[in-house]
Amino acid sequence: MNSRKVVFLFFSTMLVGAFGGAIAGTVLYDPLFAEGGFWNFIFGFIWLLGIGAAVSAIAQMGYFAYLLLNRLALSLFKTKKLWNRVQLFLIAFVFFDLFYFRYLAYATEDETIWGYLITPTLLLIFAAIVAYFKQRETHRRAFIPAFFFMYVITTIEWLPALIIPEVNDSSWLWIYLVPLLCANTYQLMLHHRLQND
User: Fold this and answer.
1) CB within 8 A of 56, min separation 6: which ones?
2) Are the C-beta atoms of residues 94 and 151 closer than 8 Å to each other?
């Protein structure tokens, strides 16, 4: 990719993440719009656009970090098959951590572990769907790397929201997650198209 394509990827991903975060925030975060009024809505929407843009910048750092990690891992593990197995193990490990450690840290006495399985499972299904479309547009071997990126790397990028007690189990978890999912899906599906142009 040349520098023009990298700049296009950067700004377009930021826009996608910003609007994804703003729409999620408008739907989920009532206190911001509780007073009503046109200008209150406009300022709140602009503020949410800024949050979405900042979160999408984190998503872009995660994407380029994964591209570097993937190259290093391929040279370290020697075969793509072994690296794919490691990625599948890490997906399972992160899935377990995502519900079990959140349950240990935040569950009250009347809560069961099953409630903490919903978000990791939905994220896993979403990652698998995106990976399937990536595989369909490129080649069969793209599924596991795309699945790993959409699940493990997105979870790592989401970690700051997950570990803050005031944010946990609130609409802010989704306001952080939606721009990450939008930005990561967009750049993953755009990358091969930019390379083929």
Assistant:
1) 13, 14, 16, 17, 18, 20, 21, 179, 180, 182, 183
2) yes
- Whether residue 195 contacts residue 134, with contact meaning beta carbons closer than 8 Å, is answered with no
In-domain check, residue 99: yes
Note down the domain range covering 120: 60-196
Answer whether 87's CB lies under 8 Å from 148's CB: yes
For residue 120, tell me if it sits in a domain.
Answer: yes
Overall domain count for the chain: 1
Dist. CA 196–CA 1, nearest whole Å? 9
Tokens found for residue 4: 């023009």
**Rounded-to-integer distance, Cα 131 and Cα 124, Å:** 10
pTM exceeds 0.85, yes or no: yes
Instruction: Say if 166 falls within a structural domain.
Output: yes
What are the tokens at 168? 């946990």
Q: With 70 as the cut, is the pLDDT of residue 165 above it?
A: no
